[in-house]
């Protein structure tokens, strides 16, 4: 990575940087804490800031972030950056496989009944069958454990998306 990536982020007005970061993880406190750590001397410093920002997400922050994510197996609507990224991240789900689509829908329904929020997993590089298997394995979790897993998944997704922000 060249020196231009930190320079671009360092040169953005704070509000613009926060807006770009919110596409990675829709938690204002996280985005603001990263922005407050500028100037970034290098790309590693940007990732370090992201890894340490908002170390403990609140349940409210997790639910806010979840609202920005479509159900696994469903195509994200809209033309905003987050929707585009979500479609790319779920590219391993074969939308033409009617049986898989049905099973994902049923799994999503069961998960939402159990936990009261959308099932979230980092879908990048995973097939629909893998995502369904993970969903089923998590249905037995207690709500507290599942919320911790979701927070970790949100951070994993945010870090992958942050690479796109850094690349500009």
TrEMBL record:
Q: Quote the biased-composition stretches of kind Polar residues, using this chain's numbering.
A: 78-93
Q: Is Cell inner membrane one of the keywords UniProt gives this record?
A: no
Source organism of this protein record: Saccharopolyspora thermophila
Annotated keywords: Decarboxylase, Lyase, Purine metabolism
Name the Enzyme Commission number(s) assigned to this protein. 4.1.1.97
Oxo-4-hydroxy-4-carboxy-5-ureidoimidazoline decarboxylase domain ranges (all copies): 10-163
Reactions catalysed according to its record: 5-hydroxy-2-oxo-4-ureido-2,5-dihydro-1H-imidazole-5-carboxylate + H(+) = (S)-allantoin + CO2
Gene Ontology biological process terms in this record:
purine nucleobase metabolic process; urate catabolic process
Check the record and name the PANTHER family matching this protein.
Answer: 2-OXO-4-HYDROXY-4-CARBOXY-5-UREIDOIMIDAZOLINE DECARBOXYLASE-RELATED
Query: What is the protein name for this chain?
Result: 2-oxo-4-hydroxy-4-carboxy-5-ureidoimidazoline decarboxylase
């Amino acid at each position: 990575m060249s020196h231009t990536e930190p320079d671009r982020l360092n040169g953005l007005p704070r509000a613009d940087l926060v807006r770009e970061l919110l596409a990675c993880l829709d938690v204002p406190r996280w985005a603001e804490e990263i922005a407050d750590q500028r100037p970034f001397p290098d790309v590693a410093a940007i990732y370090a800031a992201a890894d340490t920002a908002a170390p403990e997400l609140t349940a409210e922050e997790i639910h806010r972030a979840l609202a920005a994510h479509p159900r696994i197996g469903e195509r994200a609507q809209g033309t905003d950056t987050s929707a585009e990224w979500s479609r790319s991240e779920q590219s391993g789900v074969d939308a033409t496989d009617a049986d898989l689509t049905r099973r994902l829908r049923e799994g999503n329904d069961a998960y939402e009944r159990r936990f009261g929020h959308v099932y979230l997993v980092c879908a990048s590089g995973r097939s629909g069958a893998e995502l369904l298997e993970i969903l089923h394995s998590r249905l037995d979790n207690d709500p507290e454990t599942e919320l911790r897993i979701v927070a970790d998944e949100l951070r994993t997704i945010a870090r992958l998306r942050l690479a796109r922000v850094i690349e500009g």
